[in-house]
């Protein structure tokens, strides 16, 4: 399943990295600290709770896991991406 997402914000101040994506009506914020290996995720400015939307759960899980590898470090603001949450 392919989903369209858009990069709304992306900044880095090592060891901190932050990327925000838009998927449909969801704003997904990923804040990652490389030194601590911690990734915090918020959806629409609230902590993400799994179980309410299976597609969103897969997308959030895939995006946050790939954030650990700094996959979104060079993502451009306004860039539209097609992603498959099963293969992130």
Please mark out the parts with pLDDT under 50 across 5 or more consecutive residues, or reply none: none
- Helix content, binned percent: 10-25%
Average pLDDT over all residues? 93
Count helical runs: 1
Strand order of the largest sheet: 5-4-3-2-1-6
Order of helices and strands: EEEEEHE
Strand tally is 6
Strand coverage percent? 35-45%
Please give the radius of gyration in angstroms: 12 Å
Distance between the termini: 11 Å
Shape: globular
- Secondary-structure-derived class: alpha+beta
The largest β sheet comes out as:
6 strands, antiparallel
Question: What is the compact description of this entry?
Answer:
With about 90 residues, the chain is of the alpha+beta class.
Helix and strand arrangement:
Layout: E1 3-13, E2 16-23, E3 26-33, E4 38-43, E5 46-47, H1 54-68, E6 80-83
Antiparallel strand pairs: 1-2, 1-6, 2-3, 3-4, 4-5
Keywords:
about 90 residues, alpha+beta, 6-stranded antiparallel beta sheet, about 15% helix
Q: How would you describe what is shown here?
A:
17% of the residues lie in helices and 44% in strands. The protein has 88 residues and is α+β, with helices and mostly antiparallel strands. A 6-stranded antiparallel beta sheet has the order 5-4-3-2-1-6, covered by helices on one side. The protein is globular.
